[in-house]
Structures are given as structure tokens and as C-alpha cells.
């Protein structure tokens, strides 16, 4: 009976991830914010506020998932995201949008770590934890398919009514909250420590485990560079005179590439060394910043679309790498810590992207983003060499 419940968890996980990710506002998000009277600097400042919100709430909500209930954490996620979305529909004030981003941040942190932890532990109970990457990729496959068709719908609906994609998104995330009630939470060794001690021990484990430390540094680099890349699409589309109506169609093809990445490439690279895969993805990201800045033409959207390979491949690869290193009583908190670092990095540096777009334009911004990504690759390579040398000396 218990085995059947854990098998059911896998199906519920796929459904939950699908609906919690069906915010179909992606293609029209920047045009909508400009429509609401914001400039690029304000847009990126709002994203910084969202990331700071995630930074503040990431570990506390991860600890709640570890110490109280992962199911409750997932249920709360959809409600907070829906409320933040509603603020964007009803109001037109930068300050109220800031509150909306805080609500978004809380909602995202309730799901971050808790969803992947419940999947990993269900598979562990079934003796199938090695299949974790496959099921992460499987869930992402359906998400990207849904977002692909949602993107087309979003672009055309926006031309009819700018608010329609937002209302549809609210319904989707509330459905996710209802689905979360169907999870059977695996029994686990809960940390016996009080909250603050539990968080401190999780931090200690993360920074004293070389592989986790490497993952944290990687997360900081990709947290800024890859998260910022989304907000650079619209300025590029505008610079090559692509009408907003076609943004949804472009995002459809972006999502198809993400589908390919999550379905085909995850299988192709699941038994490869995760660090090598992650470094190669950063190399690809640097190319997708630099080439479009050199050749400013509509067809360079094809090069930009290669960033979707990262979207499909890096999350399951990184999560599997981290999950494999930690005990289950600290799993959600350590996963949340890695996500926290990514969001802190984005929070600190993303406003510079907005200021650069407003002051220097798209081309300069793309070039220095590519340079930063190359610098990150060098830092990660050097860190790994230092860790290897230290391991040799400690023997």
C-alpha cells in the first residue's frame, strides 16, 4: 500500500510542477510592465526585490518543509503566487508591484526544495533514487510543452486584453495548490535540533562539503547570468523590430528547445559527470550573449534560443548533484540554501542590467554579460583545482 502511495507521489509531482509553472505571462511580462509605466531600471529593481524576498524567506521555508511538512509548504506556494499575480492586475504603482514581488518570492520559496525533496525521497523509498534526473526531466518536458502553447496564447491574448494571460495564470497556480493536497509525505528523519540550530548545521554542511560549495558558487554565477537573460530578450526583439504579437510565437519555439533539452539531453547526459555538464552549459550561455551583440539581426533569435538548453538541463543536473551529497533531514534546507545564493546574486547585480539597458543600450549590456559569464567559468575551474589539490594534501 505504501509503495503505491509513493508511486502516486511521482504522478502528483508531475501535475503539481506543471500547474505551478503555468504562469503564461513570460512572453508579455516586459511589455506589460512597460505598459504599466515602468522603465527598464524599475523593472530590474523589482526583480531584485523579488530575489531579495527569496533570499530572506528561502531558508526559513526550507526549514519549515524539513521540520513541519513539505505538503503544507507546497500548498502555500500556489496561494502566495496567485496573490502576487493579482496585485499586478489590480494596481499600477511601483511600490505595490514591489509588494507583489515579495509575495511571489514567498510563494516560490515555499515550493523551492520541498518539491524536489518529496520526489527524491519517494524514489528513495521505491529504491529508484538513481532515476531522479529522469523524473525531473520528465516533469520539465510537460512544463515546457504547456508553456510552449501557453506562450502563443499569451502573445495573441495580450493584443486583445493585456490582463487575460494574468487571470489564466492565477487559475493555474491555484489548481497546483489543490493538487499538492494529494501528496503522501514520505516518513523521514526530521532534524532533532531547534530551528536556528538546524539552519546553522545546514549551512555548515553546505560550506564544508566541497561539492556542495562548488554547486553554491555555480549557483551564484548562473543565478545572475541566466536569470538576467530572460529580461534581455525584449530589448533584443525591439532592436531588430519584432512586433510584440510575435513574442509568444518566439517563446513557443524557445519552449520546444527546452522540451528537447529536458527530454532528450537529460537522458543523454544523466550518467555524465555533473560538473562537466554544468561548465559546458555556462560556455554555451556566454556564446549566446556575445554572438547576438556582434551580429544584430532578427535571425540571431536562433542563437538566443540556445539558452533554453540550460533551462531544460541545468536544474535537474544541479539538483541531482546536490541531493546525492546530503542526508534527507537537511535536504530541503540545503537545496533552499543553493537557491538562496542564486537569488542573492541576481538581487545584487540585476539592477545594473536595467541601468545598463537604459544608459548604454542592448549591445553593450549583452557584451559585458558575456564577459561576466566567461569570468564565472574561470572561477569555477580554478575552485575545482584548489579543491582537488587540498584533497591530495589531506591524504
UniProtKB/TrEMBL annotation:
This is MFS transporter. The chain crosses the membrane at residues 12-34, 40-60, 72-91, 97-120, 141-158, 164-184, 212-233, 245-265, 277-296, 365-383. Keywords: Membrane, Transmembrane, Transmembrane helix. Pfam families: MFS_1. One of its GO terms (molecular function) is transmembrane transporter activity. Residues 1-388 form the Major facilitator superfamily (MFS) profile domain. Gene3D superfamilies: MFS general substrate transporter like domains. The keyword Phosphoprotein does not apply. It comes from Tepiditoga spiralis. InterPro entries: MFS, MFS_DHA3_Transporter, MFS_dom, MFS_trans_sf.
Amino acid at each position: 500500500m505504501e509503495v503505491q502511495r509513493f508511486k502516486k507521489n511521482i504522478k502528483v509531482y508531475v501535475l503539481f510542477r506543471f500547474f505551478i509553472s503555468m504562469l503564461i505571462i513570460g512572453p508579455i511580462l516586459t511589455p506589460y510592465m512597460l505598459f504599466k509605466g515602468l522603465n527598464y531600471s524599475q523593472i530590474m529593481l523589482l526583480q531584485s526585490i523579488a530575489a531579495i524576498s527569496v533570499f530572506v524567506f528561502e531558508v526559513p521555508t526550507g526549514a519549515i518543509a524539513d521540520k513541519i511538512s513539505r505538503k503544507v509548504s507546497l500548498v502555500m506556494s500556489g496561494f502566495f503566487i496567485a496573490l502576487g499575480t493579482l496585485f499586478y492586475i489590480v494596481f499600477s504603482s511601483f511600490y505595490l508591484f514591489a509588494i507583489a514581488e515579495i509575495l511571489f518570492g514567498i510563494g516560490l520559496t515555499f515550493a523551492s526544495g520541498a518539491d524536489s525533496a518529496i520526489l527524491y525521497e519517494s524514489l528513495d523509498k521505491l529504491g529508484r533514487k538513481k532515476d531522479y534526473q529522469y523524473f525531473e526531466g520528465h516533469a520539465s518536458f510537460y512544463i515546457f510543452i504547456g508553456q510552449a502553447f501557453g506562450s502563443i496564447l499569451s502573445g495573441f491574448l495580450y493584443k486583445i486584453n493585456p490582463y487575460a494571460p494574468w487571470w489564466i495564470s492565477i487559475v493555474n497556480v491555484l489548481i497546483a495548490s489543490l493538487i499538492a493536497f494529494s501528496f503522501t509525505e514520505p516518513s523521514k528523519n526530521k532534524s532533532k535540533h531547534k530551528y536556528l540550530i538546524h539552519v546553522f548545521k545546514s549551512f555548515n554542511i553546505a560550506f564544508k562539503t566541497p561539492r556542495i560549495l562548488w554547486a553554491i558558487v555555480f549557483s551564484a554565477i548562473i543565478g545572475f547570468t541566466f536569470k538576467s537573460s530572460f529580461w534581455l530578450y525584449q530589448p533584443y526583439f525591439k532592436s531588430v523590430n519584432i512586433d510584440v504579437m510575435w513574442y509568444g510565437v518566439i517563446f513557443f519555439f524557445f519552449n520546444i528547445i527546452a522540451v528537447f533539452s529536458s527530454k532528450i539531453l537529460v537522458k543523454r547526459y544523466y550518467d555524465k559527470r555533473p560538473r562537466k555538464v554544468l561548465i559546458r552549459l555556462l560556455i554555451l550561455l556566454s556564446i549566446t550573449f556575445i554572438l547576438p551583440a556582434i551580429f544584430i539581426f532578427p535571425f540571431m533569435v536562433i542563437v538566443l534560443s540556445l539558452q533554453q538548453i540550460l533551462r531544460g538541463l541545468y536544474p535537474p543536473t544541479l539538483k541531482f548533484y546536490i541531493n546525492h551529497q546530503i542526508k534527507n533531514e537537511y535536504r530541503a534546507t540545503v537545496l533552499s540554501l543553493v537557491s538562496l545564493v542564486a537569488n542573492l546574486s541576481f538581487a545584487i547585480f540585476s539592477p545594473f542590467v536595467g541601468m545598463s539597458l537604459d544608459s548604454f543600450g542592448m549591445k553593450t549590456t549583452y557584451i559585458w554579460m558575456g564577459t561576466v559569464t566567461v569570468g564565472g567559468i574561470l572561477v569555477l575551474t580554478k575552485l575545482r583545482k584548489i579543491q582537488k589539490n587540498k584533497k591530495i594534501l589531506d591524504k
